[in-house]
Design goal:
By secondary structure, this protein is an all-alpha fold. It contains 4 helices and no strands. GO terms for molecular function: DNA binding.
Length: 59
């Protein structure tokens, strides 16, 4: 298989503190689109964090 055209992305791991800070920015009114661009977070990942916010606070 030719991989010369494939794009490899390095996954960034966010700490719990970073995730909570990003959630707080959304709650403060910053758009999800701008957060996705600023922090290079996939949309699905961001949705998961928002859904699991309570669990993040318990960690």
């Amino acid at each position: 298989m030719d991989t010369s055209n494939s794009v490899t992305r390095k996954r960034k791991q966010f700490s719990i503190v970073e995730k909570i800070e990003i959630i707080d920015k959304i709650k403060a009114g910053q758009s999800r689109t701008s957060i996705i661009k600023e922090f290079a977070v996939p949309e699905g990942t961001l949705r998961g964090w928002l859904k699991d916010e309570e669990k993040l606070w318990q960690k």
